[in-house]
Amino acid sequence: MKLSTRTRYGIRAVIELAQHEGKRPLQLKAIAERQSISVKYLEQLMSLLRSSGFVRSVRGSKGGYVLARLPEQIKLSEVFRCLEGPVTTAECTQDKDYCERSADCAAREVWIQVEEAIHRVLDSITLADLVDKTQTTTASYSI
Predict the structure, then answer these.
(1) Which residues contact 90 (CB under 8 A, 6 or more apart)?
(2) 68, 56 in Cβ contact below 8 A?
(3) Where are the domains of the chain?
(4) Are 83 and 45 in contact (CB under 8 A)?
(5) CATH number for domain 5-141, candidates 2.40.40.20, 3.40.50.300, 2.60.40.10, 1.10.10.10
(6) Contacts 24+ apart (CB under 8 A), 48-56
(7) What is the tens place of the pLDDT at every residue in 3-59?
(8) Is the entire prediction scored with pTM above 0.70?
(9) Which end of the chain, N or C, is more open, meaning fewer C-beta atoms within 10 Å of its C-beta?
């Protein structure tokens, strides 16, 4: 399974917003520069994230984007599903009728376990956890 650019960049952008929680809104240009994402592509991502209720825009000269909820309230799994869609390793895991061998296929059981493991990991992490991890990593570099 390979994550799309949309998911990788979108998650980087919401982490950036989570790092600035409680401060002034971040402008797209600033996020784009810090995360090495084109402004045009970031606009598309923010539109999707806004329509899904993860971010909101603030108008005006000091406007930009902020998280719509606290970082502790946003699970990585939610953002992931918004950007990537459902985690699917094989078509047969979601639809038994997709393959005539589904009923007795040992590989299908493995793919289901892989999906469940991915869900558990993504469900266990919030944006606040990622901010903490970033701050810990940054602090260890400055020693």
Answers:
(1) 107, 108, 111
(2) yes
(3) 5-141
(4) yes
(5) 1.10.10.10
(6) 48/6, 48/10, 48/82, 48/83, 49/10, 49/13, 49/14, 49/79, 49/82, 49/83, 52/82, 54/14, 54/78, 54/79, 54/82, 55/14, 55/17
(7) 899 999 999 999 999 998 888 899 999 999 999 999 999 999 999 999 999 999 999
(8) yes
(9) C
pLDDT number for residue 139:
54
Can you tell me which residue has the tokens 């930009």? 64
Would you state the torsion angle of the CA atoms of residues 67, 35, 134, 63, taken in this order, to the nearest 10 degrees? Answer: -30
Residue 142 has pLDDT above 70, yes or no: no
